[in-house]
Write a structure and sequence with these properties.
Largest sheet: 5 strands, mixed
Order of helices and strands: HHEHEEEEEEEEEE
Number of helices: 3
Structural class: alpha+beta
Number of strands: 11
Strand order of the largest sheet: 8-7-2-1-11
Helix content: 10-25%
């Protein structure tokens, strides 16, 4: 009986034009902006800890590693971070910190001494080496400290 109902539901969805398959973007995956933590906790004192608590995350949902060499992350004022030779593994997230540190497979650092992301509103834009826009993520709130993209 359950098999008959399931078949009937699938047949009805197909007849109505509703596809039960993932969209092309979901099926293929993507490299995209994932989260912006724009207002680091505590006092904005430009310490390494405070600067590194301000970050952008990029996620790879493709089935393979992607070399981000030459890709950029910018804000609305055109503060730009350019990736060196960096491979973002399949299913992985890289955190791009504003401050200083040692780059790893999961964390890279802009080596800045000042904040990049405004605490009230800004836009992060991710671009490929050729300048093609991969995506953007905007926020307009002081109510929260971060934004899921």
């Amino acid at each position: 009986m359950l098999r008959t109902r399931t078949f009937a539901a699938v047949a009805a969805a197909a007849a109505s034009g509703v596809l039960l398959l993932p969209s092309q973007a979901q099926a293929a995956g993507s490299v995209h902006l994932y989260k912006i933590y724009y207002d680091s906790p505590g006092t904005d004192n430009r310490s390494t800890a405070s600067l590194n608590a301000e970050y952008v995350q990029i996620r790879n949902t493709t089935g393979a590693g992607v070399n981000l060499r030459g890709w950029t992350v910018t804000d609305a004022a055109n503060h730009k971070y350019t990736f060196g030779n960096f491979v973002l593994g399949k299913g992985k997230i890289v955190t791009v910190h504003t401050g200083r540190g040692t780059n790893t497979a999961a964390h890279v650092y802009q080596n800045r001494g000042a904040y990049v992301w405004n605490n009230d509103r800004d836009t992060a834009t991710l671009r490929k080496t050729n300048g093609a826009r991969v995506g953007a993520c905007s926020y307009n709130s002081t109510r929260y400290d971060y934004k899921w993209c």
